[in-house]
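User: I'm putting together a small comparison set for a docking exercise, and I want a reference complex before I start. The sequence is below, and the ligand is S-adenosylmethionine. Could you produce the 3D structure with the ligand included, as C-alpha cells?
Assistant: Of course. I'll restate your input first, then give the C-alpha cells for the complex.
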Amino acid sequence: MCDIAVTTTSQQAEATDFESRLVRALNESGLLLLTSIGHRTGLLEALAGQSPLTSPALAERSGLQERYVREWLGGMVAAEVVETDPESASYWLPDERAELLTDRGPVNLAVYAQFIPLLGSVEDDVVRCFHEGGGVPYSRYPRFQEVMASDSGQTVLPALFDAILPLAPGLIERLESGIRVLDCACGRGRALLAMAERFPSSRFVGYDLCEEAIGWAREQAERTGLTNLSFEVRDLSDFDVTATPGAFELVTTFDGIHDQAQPRRLLAGIHRTLVADGVYLVQDIHASSHHHLDRQHPLGAMLYAVSLSHCMTVSLAQGGEGLGTMWGRERALAYLEEAGFHDIRVHQLEHDIQNDYFVCRP
Ligand SMILES: C[S@@+](CC[C@H](N)C(=O)[O-])C[C@H]1O[C@@H](n2cnc3c(N)ncnc32)[C@H](O)[C@@H]1O
C-alpha cells in the first residue's frame, strides 16, 4: 500500500510538472508569434536603443497603426520582454534583450521566430497529407526563401571566411589563386555572392530549383557588378547522370541535402562533378539518426516540427525520398560514403548549434 501511495504521489508531481511545462510552452509560443510580428513590422528595431516611447510615438516612428502597436506592446510586456512605466504609459526594450532580438548583436534570434507562423500556415495541407499521403509543394510557402536566406545569413555568412572555409586546409589559398566553385541548392545564393566578391580569381555557379530565389540572386549579382558568378534554375534530382564530370574544385551545400527529392542522386552527382583533389563542404542539421538519442537535442522538437511542416514534406511533394531535417549524422555519413566520398571529417562550430559541417574528399 505504502509503495502504491509513493508512486501515486510522484506520478501526480510529474503530471503537475508536465502541465506547467505545457502551459509555459503555450505562453512561449505566443511570444514567438509576437516576436515574428515585431521583427517583420520593424517594431523591435524601432524600440532598440531608444529612451522610453509611448504607443502613439512608437506607432508614428514606425509608420504603423497605433491600435495594433498597443496590443503588440501589451503582449511583449506580458512576456517580460518589453518594459513599461504605467505612469508615463511608455515602453522600452532593454539593451541586453535588443542585442538578441535585433541586428545590434551578433545573432538576431527574432529571425528564427518567423519559422513558427511560416510553417503554421501550411498546417491544413500537412494534416491532409497525414490522411492522403503526398507532400506540400514549395509553392505553398511564399516567404520560405526570404526567411531561409536570413537564417543562413546568420549561420553561414558571418562565419564563412573565418570558420567554415578554413575547415578544409589550403582551401582559402586555392580560392585566392582561382578555382571553380559550385553551390548546390543555393537558395538566394548569399554564400556565393559573398565568396565571389572575396575571391575575384575564382568562378562561382549556383543551382536551385526555385525560380524566385535564383531571380533574387541574379539581381543581386547584377546590382553588385560581380561578373565571376552565375545562377541557374536547375532540378538536381538527376544530378548523378546530368553532372559534368570533373568540372569543379569545390562544391558546397548549405542546408541543402535533407530536403532534396533525391539526396542520394545529388550526392553522387556532386562526387562526379568534383576533380580528383576536389573538396565537398557540407553544412547540414546536427542530429543523431535515432529518435531516442535526440531527447537532449537543444532544438529537437522544433527541428522535427520544421521537418514535418517543410523539409520532409517538400521532398515528398516532388515524389522524393522525404529524408527529413533530422536525418542525422550517422545517415549522412552513410550517404556520403555511398556516393563515393572516402575521406570525411565532421566538425561542429561554436557559432552554430544547429548544424554539423562535413569536409569530404573524393
Ligand atoms: C533549406 S534551403 C537552403 C537554401 C540555401 N542553401 C541557404 O542556405 O539559404 C534548401 C534549398 O533546396 C532547394 N531544392 C529543393 N529541392 C530541390 C531540387 N530538386 N533541385 C534543386 N534544388 C532543390 C530549395 O529550393 C531550397 O532553396
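The longest strand covers residues 274-285. The domain at 2-104 is CATH 1.10.10.10 (Arc Repressor Mutant, subunit A).
User: Thanks, that's exactly what I needed.
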